[in-house]
């Protein structure tokens, strides 16, 4: 799969991967990520870290690291016109939205249930909001998004609700070089 | 056989007299013969030439650009409220403020990924990357073979550093430290008097000067009128154990620290004979009140030397100043802040204690080109009314960071070894909660009215 990242950026990221890899075994574990203080205090830190690890695995190698980060490449104008035979790039709007969707979808069953939404909300607010209030927030959110009445948010419902959000800008990392 | 020994002996005598005559004696009188200055000038010219060659070579090979001081990725500086507010603005509901939307997660997601690519804290515990190579193998990260001439210069550099400078520096270090131990023991035999204090100061300064020569240290002191006075506390940013040598070259301080064994222990026990330093047993360090009391007693006695403390508590890589522990700022007394900034082109002074032990670190120091640094004495500060120890500590830290051109961080240097406190995450959660809960109550009221 083509990642379309420049040579210097790959080198930078490899250097970063290497500095995070304290065990020097060519792969990162969840503890390696937790060692970044600003990530450890991020309320959704665990969910973000989890996105790097494929189902059931505890180690991510450099290829996997890059693949996950590739979702956050900015969408360049000239690439929007590329032919579709090369497959949708990882950093397309759809794939960025899917990345965010998976932050909520804890069991990876392509639906966000009320329970999952509650759990993620609880991560974000800590102890500061009561169960009842959180429950009503979750209910209202699902009500707004759910169009087919199954009391869950599917990926297409998720996409519809957020269609006006500038995903390309908000879910992109720009290198300075 | 006899002949060989005689020659070796003569060699040794000549060597020793050169060292004594040209280095030790001038050091004792604080006089510089100018050798170090010439050496530095030659070094600067060589490194400039090398940089140009590398840049030219890089253009031809289209090699990699180096890291700028601003980091490698763009970061939005907005607060949580600003950023999430922007995200929510495009949401169809367009709420006045507050309440949860699914796109809120984008903010945390982006911040998290940014921090995975580059964060403010973990980079402070490894050596700073150089903008251009300084001809030391150890700093050779992304630089590849450029030209034969450069490689020859590099080879010459290796020879000079390891075969000429290293033995010289080791000799000086050994002389300096032995003289410190012997001198302070001798001075310690005298009864307490002004003469004793004067001699103690002389012995200390001479030995630290010799040690500084042993590192080819070029130190520039700024604003000497703000030099710490007796009964005060000198506070500085910490990069390496060499900081002590750097500061003690220009003044006499009372050291504070834990009692060590081995060579350090010998040094500690001998220098405390000639003038009072504050050494703590490991068990005493845990009792904050006992520590504070001893320091208070020390500064209350106006005949004793100013205390030297590094409030960060650990070595940082000299690109930033991290959280100052409030202990030193609760004692009272006048704080004399000092900023130390090393020039990384000539040698990396940072002691990465996870990677190198003390001996390998000192060897690395002695095989660098030189240690070049600037020391700024800042005007004394005292705690103001209504200011608590933490605020005072932050104020001093900002002043030092500003003077030294260092990044002012509030992260704890202890994060080098420990996990971050859970309470910081709770702060983030609290901040976010206030963005949801605000208008949620009103929403409930409105929907109830509608039905």
From TrEMBL, chain A:
GO CC, alphabetical: cytoplasm; nucleus; plasma membrane
Predominant cellular place of this UniProt entry's protein: membrane
Name of the encoding gene: LOC109089154
Domain of life: Eukaryota
Alphabetic keyword roster: Calcium, Cell membrane, Cytoplasm, Lipoprotein, Membrane, Metal-binding, Myristate, Nucleus, Phosphoprotein, Protein transport, Repeat, Transport
Protein name: EF-hand domain-containing protein
Pfam families named among the record's database cross-references: EF-hand_7
Single GO term (MF): calcium ion binding
Family as reported in the entry's similarity comment: Belongs to the calcineurin regulatory subunit family. CHP subfamily.
A single GO BP: protein transport
Domain EF-hand as annotated: residue spans: 8-43, 92-127, 133-168
PROSITE patterns: EF_HAND_1, EF_HAND_2
InterPro entries: Calcineurin_B_homologous (IPR051875), EF-hand-dom_pair (IPR011992), EF_Hand_1_Ca_BS (IPR018247), EF_hand_dom (IPR002048)
Protein's organism: Cyprinus carpio (Common carp)
Localization in the cell: Cell membrane; Cytoplasm; Nucleus
Automatic annotation (TrEMBL), chain B:
Cell compartments where the protein resides: Endoplasmic reticulum membrane
SUPFAM superfamilies in the cross-refs: Glycerol-3-phosphate (1)-acyltransferase (SSF69593)
Gene Ontology CC entries for this record: endoplasmic reticulum membrane
GO terms for biological process, alphabetical: phospholipid biosynthetic process; triglyceride biosynthetic process
Membrane topology: Multi-pass membrane protein
Keyword Cell inner membrane annotated: no
Residues annotated as domain Phospholipid/glycerol acyltransferase: 232-343
Molecular function terms from GO: glycerol-3-phosphate O-acyltransferase activity
Keyword Lipid biosynthesis recorded: yes
Pfam families per UniProt: Acyltransferase
Source organism, top-level taxon: Eukaryota
Chain segments annotated as transmembrane: 12-35, 143-164, 170-190
Chief place where the protein resides: endoplasmic reticulum
Keyword set, alphabetical order: Acyltransferase, Endoplasmic reticulum, Lipid biosynthesis, Lipid metabolism, Membrane, Phospholipid biosynthesis, Phospholipid metabolism, Transferase, Transmembrane, Transmembrane helix
Pathway per the UniProt entry: Lipid metabolism; Glycerolipid metabolism; triacylglycerol biosynthesis; Phospholipid metabolism; CDP-diacylglycerol biosynthesis; CDP-diacylglycerol from sn-glycerol 3-phosphate: step 1/3
PANTHER family (alphabetical): GLYCEROL-3-PHOSPHATE ACYLTRANSFERASE 3, PHOSPHOLIPID ACYLTRANSFERASE
Family to which this protein belongs: Belongs to the 1-acyl-sn-glycerol-3-phosphate acyltransferase family.
The name this protein goes by in its record: Glycerol-3-phosphate acyltransferase 3
Originating species: Cyprinus carpio carpio
């Amino acid at each position: 799969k083509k990642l379309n990242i420049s040579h210097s950026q790959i080198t930078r990221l490899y250097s970063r991967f290497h500095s995070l890899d304290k065990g020097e075994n060519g792969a990162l574990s969840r503890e390696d990520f937790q060692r970044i203080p600003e990530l450890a205090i991020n309320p959704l830190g665990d969910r973000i870290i989890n996105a790097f690890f494929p189902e059931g695995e505890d180690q991510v190698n450099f290829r996997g690291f890059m693949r996950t980060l590739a979702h956050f490449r900015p969408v360049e104008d000239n690439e929007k016109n590329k032919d579709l035979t090369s497959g949708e790039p990882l950093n397309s709007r759809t794939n960025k939205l899917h990345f965010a969707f998976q932050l909520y979808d804890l069991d990876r069953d392509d639906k966000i249930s009320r329970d999952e939404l509650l759990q993620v909300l609880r991560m974000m607010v800590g102890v500061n909001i009561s169960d009842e209030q959180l429950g009503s927030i979750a209910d209202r959110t699902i009500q707004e998004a759910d169009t087919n009445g199954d009391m869950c948010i599917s990926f297409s419902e998720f996409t519809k609700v957020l269609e006006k959000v500038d995903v390309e800008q908000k879910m992109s990392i720009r290198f300075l070089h | 056989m006899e002949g060989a020994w005689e020659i070796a002996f003569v060699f040794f005598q000549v060597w020793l007299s050169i060292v004594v005559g040209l280095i030790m004696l001038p050091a004792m009188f604080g006089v510089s013969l100018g050798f170090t200055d010439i050496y530095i000038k030659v070094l600067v010219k060589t490194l400039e030439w090398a940089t140009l060659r590398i840049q030219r070579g890089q253009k031809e090979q289209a090699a990699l650009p180096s890291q700028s001081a601003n980091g490698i990725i763009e970061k939005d500086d907005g607060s949580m409220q600003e950023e999430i507010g922007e995200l929510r603005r495009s949401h169809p509901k367009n709420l006045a403020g507050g309440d949860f939307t699914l796109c809120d997660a984008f903010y945390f997601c982006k911040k998290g990924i940014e921090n995975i690519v580059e964060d403010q804290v973990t980079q402070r515990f490894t050596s700073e990357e150089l903008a251009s190579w300084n001809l030391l193998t150890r700093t050779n990260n992304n630089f590849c073979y450029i030209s034969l001439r450069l490689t020859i210069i590099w080879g010459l550099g290796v020879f000079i550093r390891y075969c000429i400078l290293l033995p010289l520096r080791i000799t000086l270090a050994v002389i300096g430290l032995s003289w410190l131990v012997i001198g302070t023991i001798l001075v310690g035999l005298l009864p307490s008097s002004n003469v004793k204090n004067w001699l103690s100061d002389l012995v200390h300064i001479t030995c630290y000067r010799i040690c500084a020569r042993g590192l080819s240290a070029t130190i520039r002191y700024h604003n000497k009128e703000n030099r710490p006075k007796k009964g005060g506390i000198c506070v500085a940013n910490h990069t390496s154990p060499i900081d002590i040598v750097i500061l003690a070259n220009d003044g006499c301080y009372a050291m504070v620290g834990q009692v060590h064994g081995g060579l350090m222990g010998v040094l500690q026990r001998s220098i405390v004979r000639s003038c009072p330093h504050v050494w703590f047993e490991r068990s005493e360090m845990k009792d904050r009140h006992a520590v504070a009391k001893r320091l208070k007693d020390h500064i209350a006695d106006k005949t004793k030397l100013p205390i030297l403390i590094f409030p960060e508590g650990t070595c940082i890589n000299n690109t930033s100043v991290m959280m100052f522990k409030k202990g030193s700022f609760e004692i009272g007394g006048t704080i004399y802040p000092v900023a130390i900034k090393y020039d990384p082109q000539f040698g990396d002074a940072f002691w990465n204690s996870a990677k190198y032990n003390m001996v390998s670190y000192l060897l690395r120091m002695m095989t660098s080109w030189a240690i070049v640094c600037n020391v700024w004495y800042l005007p004394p500060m005292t705690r103001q009314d209504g200011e608590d120890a933490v605020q005072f500590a932050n104020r001093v830290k900002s002043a030092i960071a500003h003077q030294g051109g260092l990044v002012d961080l509030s992260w704890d240097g202890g994060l080098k070894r420990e996990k971050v406190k859970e309470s910081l995450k709770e702060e983030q959660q609290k901040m976010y909660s206030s963005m949801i809960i605000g208008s949620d109550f009103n929403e409930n009221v409105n929907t109830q009215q509608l039905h």
